[in-house]
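Margin note: ligand = cobalt (II) ion.
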Amino acid sequence: MEKSLTYPPPFKSNDNRIMDIKINTVATTPFDDQRPGTSGLRKATTTFQKPHYLENFVQSIFNSLPTLDGICLVVGGDGRFYNREAIQTIIRMAAANGIGELIIGQGGILSTPAASHLIRKNGTDGGIILSASHNPGGPDGDFGIKFNTPNGGPAAEKITEAIYAASKTISKYRIATADPIDLDSIGETQLGSLKIRVIDAVSDYAELMQTLFDFDLIRDYLAGRRMIFDAMHAVTGPYGKRIFEEMLGCPEGTVWNGEPLPDFGGGHPDPNLAHAKALVKEMFADDGPFFGAASDGDGDRNMVLGHQFFVTPSDSLAVLAANATVAPGYRDGIAGIARSMPTSAAADRVAAELGVDCYETPTGWKFFGNLLDAGKITLCGEESFGTGSDHVREKDGLWAVLFWLNLLAAKKQSVADIMLDHWQTYGRNAYARHDYEEVDSDAAKSLMTNLTAKLAGLPGSTLDGRTVAYADDFSYTDPVDGSVSEHQGLRIGFEDGSRIVFRLSGTGTRGATLRVYLEQFTSNASDYSADAHELLKPIATIAHQLAGIEYYTGRSEPSVIT
Ligand code: VG1
Ligand code: CO
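Resulting structure:
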């Protein structure tokens, strides 16, 4: 881990405001629903607004740390409704718990990858990220909170389980009485023994990007070409404006929806074909831009589009891996690749060609941390619009967009041509995810139980003309620390290279969300121009029948296809 700043960072005493505090110990009782999911604790905003709810969880995080004495944490969020209130609470609790310093993004804003970078760059003891990522925000939307460890990544399961355990026995929390801290002015404030440093949220991140990509090449290439970056009124607005419009010379207006809003402008800040509709329409217009991209609520997801062309996230990981050396940060090649289990095997084919290892992990970025820290992988990704590398320990939306721009500038080809070339070399893993949202939780569990019981009998049998090669309940043993994570999704693989995966979401907040992941490999050139959904129709039908989706959920169609 690089530590380019000294720690603790120098304290500028001429610029601080000193505020007195009174420390209170508040009696509380546990909530029974504070188990972090795929990515932190995510609940309806109204749940977080219940008296003691946020405080209990924050104190549970604190109670599970080895020490609090004088430690430094990064704090920031995606700007959604309740972000500022939550940060003020965390500040007062940090002051009362003997924490030494908080580094906070201006306005309480930090994208998830920028927070990860700040933790690493300043060598802090971790960070708290306030986000429900791609879930809608606002008083009727969702809120979330996540703890990241000193490597910059989401806490591993061992730690999230310790936080959960602490939340079940909590009886008191410590909080200071103090005036709200000004989060909008850059500078330092002293609150009792706690130093609060409000910093520019964008600069360090933008600097990091300049070390990884050839900004001069990209700037020259973009001159006279039109691209769009849709920040979806979420956290990447300020990052996108600085990087695309100020540093890379794109005209004003290149960044769409660039102002972070507490309710994301009423939208669903999830960068996919279903939720970034206006961008997709513009990209598919006859005179549409050559390149378009979008990011999610907290800036860790990305969607990449060419003119009249959509790149699946699984393909994006494979293409970036195959061409990594075009970018200065990856000029020496990559050590290995990891993908989450439901992500298509497109990256595996590239890894095999490059002669590097490819790891298959459970869903969620926390499972990449050990592999990245151990230097076993350089790139990693998920089918859910997440791509990243060892530059931070979170997925990184803008990083992926810049990587694509660097690639386009180096190859001087369209997005569609790059993708077609890739398929001609490696074959195509046609891919889609079908989500059944807000289904009855018990019905979803019954579906999974019933399907699990069928798995053992499937291998060797034939479903609609396809022979099942394997069927299992995915279990992962971390190659670095040996920890085992079970029940990570049901996989059914066929001899022809197609695959169906079933999982229940760990980020949804209402009922259950059933995710069905469909993959079909083809090396038949006539399939390269075909619609993925056409190619996947036969296995979608198998999935429906095998799991009894309509029987259990009452749904004949998914709510969202991505
Ligand atoms: C979803 C995605 C998963 C991703 C997670 C967090 O989880 O499927 O790949 O890591 O969201 O992404 P689940 O359990 O609902 O399938 V983010 O951008 O919401 O932090
Ligand atoms: Co996100």
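The two ends are 35 Å apart (CA to CA).
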